[in-house]
């Protein structure tokens, strides 16, 4: 029986469903609550995030420019469907621990009282794009978490959400871009300088056509200082421009489509008379899901050749091309330019080196000519980019390295694309670290769920190897005698001779265990020289490098974690530290599992001592019982007993099944007290009287603070059948399965014994005929939880009704197996079942 005392949640583990990542398909789930002042957000719960990284999120401002803060500030559900969208809307997160997450959804936690305030927020991060239906799922999880916060009594602040209007952005767009992973190798100051001093005009306007920024060349063209642009409307800066120009810019915002190579003619404040400039205007997507938040403009004046000589114009353009050429040639990323026939016009040395061909081999040739395997992948993508002007990203793995490629159109004449540009970044290291972090998280999660030593060994086999990029990971444990180190059978052990190694043997595993220090063997020859007795096994192994790390749990080594590699390894210091960390996680889980198994075995032995060693033989009837210990540590309180009534010549018997609240030594002592008390009282008095006497015994004993449910029946055998008098103290009703298959529920009123000052108990008599079976059980049967909720009394009745004509032994095993098959996960509560069949 589980404790009937309510418990307060004291950490965040119950605020979200334990399988929240499986339900949503998310990689990371984060839950934050407002601090009492309502200005900071505190991390309450996270799953899928490495603990060391989660520490950086322990507390951060409500005003932080990240998605989860925005949800808490505005009360809106925030969705960034991809890495590109997240980087544009929340660029500050590019250097934070969740940067490996691409799409995200954040939902506010509304106060459970419905007072219109927000108490925190929930964020789900996804490895790729956000799946359909995630917004609804996040909203439901946020409501669930808010209710659990109230139930747990966690302290928090409250905030009245305020909608955020699009306005001039705070930090410089270039400064923000400088924090992104795609340009982390480029100096931020260089980017600022390039933007501000480009020989072409660059400016950014918001949705209301107010300037956000303008570089020096734009200020010169517009005839106003750069500082006078931010915050002013286009008409304030350039009042005499044609109204049609402003309408065309609004179409960019309304449609999200760029305007390429648009000529504008009109006077500016800087110089009288008609002037002409040509520009391209692109939508800027930001924090609003309804469309662009502004416009980025790139333009330059088209001078009158009557006043500016062709030589000067040519020189200016040559200077600009030289600067751009220098930037492309020295960029730390791959850059290529292809014409509309998709032939290489230009490629920088970095990309040429990645392709394994000189720069000259590329020029004038198409991708399929050089790399036939890439043609079907990238050529259709580049044609789409050239035709639509869309930006497309694709990730390609070549020769063991991973490249992220971005394709975008370069404007040409007549509003059409003149070329296709490609930017390629080597993300091999990033993807490798992402995989390693994900595997470590999976390994840690598997260890946290492992209860037994066998489950820890399986978690190491399945998780430690991939995390360490090893071909095999196996656990060798010291046996109970302390003489041998043995590999549990997992199917991935090292060579057969290593399955059992003497503790004092001249062997690398034994030497590692004795030294209690990790050993690393990058190559086999030194290992063969040092351990000649193991030379044959080492040579016959398919592995060419080994790492062996002691498994420490509670201070002393319990075994060795062995990693094998098919190729020689370097084992540099950082990698050695990582393998030691994996072994530390496994060692802690192993120590916990070993302690659990020892305590569980002790509890089971103690529990067995509280039950009859064997059931008596009842003339004219057949008995069977089964007891199943739950997975919780500590002896439980379930018990059963059958004994004769003195002086009845074997014609009268007492049947008892009970369940003491709680677990542990106190529950065991009450179990023993109840069983022995009933052996005395029930043998002399009717069942209801015997239970009342037990209740008084429990209430009068100052050392007893437990209560129990119990059912007691006196069986009186007669020719052709029996009569059963039943009394119950708050116990589940007994069931009678008649010889014809009908099932009757024997409900008897009564309250828990020892729980209240006074106890009221009823009684009921049941006539049993030959072939009838009575079944007593504890609440572990009907309270077993599975996919359809509790197992319940109705499901138990149906199980008995559908059972074939069975012996009591077959019947109790049928109930036990039916509950086990229905239950999700391990057995949570103890189960005791007792069956008696008349005429057996």
From TrEMBL:
A Pfam family hit: PAS_4
PAS domain sequence ranges: 187-256
Keywords annotated in UniProt: Hydrolase
PROSITE patterns on file: PAS (PS50112)
Parts of the chain that traverse the membrane: none
Source organism superkingdom: Bacteria
GO molecular function: phosphatase activity
Protein name from the UniProt record: GAF domain-containing protein
Natural source organism: Micromonospora sediminicola
């Amino acid at each position: 029986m589980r404790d009937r005392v309510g418990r307060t949640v004291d950490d965040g583990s119950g605020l979200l469903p334990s399988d929240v990542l499986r339900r949503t398909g998310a990689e990371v789930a984060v839950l934050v609550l407002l601090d009492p002042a309502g200005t900071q957000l505190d991390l309450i719960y996270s799953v899928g995030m490495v603990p060391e990284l989660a520490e950086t999120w322990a507390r951060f401002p409500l005003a932080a420019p990240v998605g989860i803060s925005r949800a808490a500030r505005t009360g809106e559900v925030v969705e960034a469907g991809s890495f590109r969208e997240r980087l544009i809307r929340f660029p500050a997160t590019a250097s934070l621990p969740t940067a490996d997450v691409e799409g995200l959804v954040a939902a506010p936690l509304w106060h459970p009282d419905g007072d219109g305030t927000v108490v925190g927020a929930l964020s789900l991060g996804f490895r790729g794009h956000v799946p359909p239906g995630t917004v609804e799922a996040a909203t439901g999880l946020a409501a669930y978490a808010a209710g659990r916060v109230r139930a747990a009594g966690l302290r928090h602040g409250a905030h009245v959400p305020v909608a955020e209007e699009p306005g001039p952005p705070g930090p410089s767009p270039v400064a923000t871009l400088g924090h992104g992973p795609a340009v982390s190798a480029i100096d931020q100051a260089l980017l600022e300088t390039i933007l501000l001093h480009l020989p072409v005009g660059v400016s950014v306007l918001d949705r209301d056509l107010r300037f956000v920024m303008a570089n020096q060349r734009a200020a010169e063209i517009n005839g106003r200082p750069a500082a006078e642009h931010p915050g002013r409307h286009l008409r304030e800066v350039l009042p005499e421009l044609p109204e049609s120009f402003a309408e065309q810019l609004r179409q960019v915002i309304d449609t999200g489509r760029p305007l390429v190579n648009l000529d504008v003619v009109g006077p500016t404040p800087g110089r009288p008379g008609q002037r002409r400039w040509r520009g391209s205007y692109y939508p800027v997507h930001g924090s609003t899901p309804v469309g662009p938040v502004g416009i980025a403009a790139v333009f330059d004046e088209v001078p009158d050749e009557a006043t500016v000589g062709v030589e000067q114009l040519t020189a200016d353009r040559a200077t600009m091309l030289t600067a751009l050429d220098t930037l492309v040639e020295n960029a730390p990323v791959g850059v290529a330019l292809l014409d509309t026939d998709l032939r290489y016009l230009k490629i920088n040395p970095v990309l040429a080196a990645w392709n394994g061909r000189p720069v000259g081999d590329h020029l004038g040739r198409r991708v399929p000519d050089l790399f036939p395997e890439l043609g079907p992948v990238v050529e259709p993508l580049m044609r789409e980019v050239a035709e639509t002007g869309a930006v497309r990203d694709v990730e390609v793995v070549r020769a063991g390295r991973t490249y992220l490629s971005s394709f975008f159109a370069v404007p040409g004449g007549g509003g059409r694309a003149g070329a296709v540009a490609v930017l390629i970044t080597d993300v091999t290291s990033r993807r490798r670290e992402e995989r390693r972090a994900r595997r470590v998280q999976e390994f840690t999660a598997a260890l946290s769920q492992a209860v037994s030593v066998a489950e820890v060994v399986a978690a190491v086999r399945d998780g430690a190897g991939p995390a360490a990029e090893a071909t095999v990971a196996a656990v060798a444990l010291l046996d109970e005698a302390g003489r041998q180190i043995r590999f549990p059978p997992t199917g991935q052990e090292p060579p057969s001779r290593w399955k059992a190694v003497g503790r004092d043997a001249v062997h690398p595993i034994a030497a590692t265990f004795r030294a209690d220090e990790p050993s690393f063997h990058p190559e086999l020859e030194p290992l063969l020289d040092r351990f000649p007795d193991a030379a044959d096994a080492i040579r016959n192994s398919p592995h060419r490098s080994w790492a062996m790390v002691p498994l420490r749990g509670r201070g002393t080594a319990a075994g060795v974690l062995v990693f094998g590699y098919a190729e020689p390894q370097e084992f540099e210091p950082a990698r050695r530290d990582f393998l030691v960390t994996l072994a530390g996680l496994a060692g802690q889980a192993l120590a916990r599992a070993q302690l659990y198994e020892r305590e569980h075995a002790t509890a089971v032995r103690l529990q067995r001592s509280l039950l009859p060693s064997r059931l008596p033989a009842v003339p004219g009837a057949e008995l069977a019982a089964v007891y199943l210990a739950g997975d919780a540590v500590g002896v439980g309180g379930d018990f059963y007993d059958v004994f004769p009534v003195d002086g009845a010549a074997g014609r009268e018997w007492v049947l008892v099944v009970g369940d003491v609240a709680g677990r542990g030594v106190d529950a065991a002592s009450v179990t023993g007290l109840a069983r022995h008390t009933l052996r005395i009282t029930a043998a002399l008095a009717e069942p209801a009287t015997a239970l009342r006497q037990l209740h008084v015994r429990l209430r009068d004993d100052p050392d007893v603070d437990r209560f129990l449910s119990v059912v007691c029946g006196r069986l009186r055998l007669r020719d052709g059948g029996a009569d059963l008098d039943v009394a119950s103290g708050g116990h589940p009703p007994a069931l009678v399965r008649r010889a014809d298959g009908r099932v009757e529920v024997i409900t008897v009123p009564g309250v828990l014994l020892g729980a209240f000052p006074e106890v009221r108990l009823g009684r009921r008599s049941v006539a049993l005929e030959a072939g009838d079976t009575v079944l007593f059980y504890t609440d572990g049967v009907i309270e077993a939880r599975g996919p359809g909720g509790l197992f319940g009394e109705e499901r138990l009745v149906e199980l008995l009704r559908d059972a074939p004509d069975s012996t009591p032994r077959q019947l109790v095993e049928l109930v036990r197996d039916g509950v086990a098959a229905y239950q999700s996960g391990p057995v949570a509560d103890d189960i005791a079942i007792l069956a008696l069949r008349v005429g057996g």
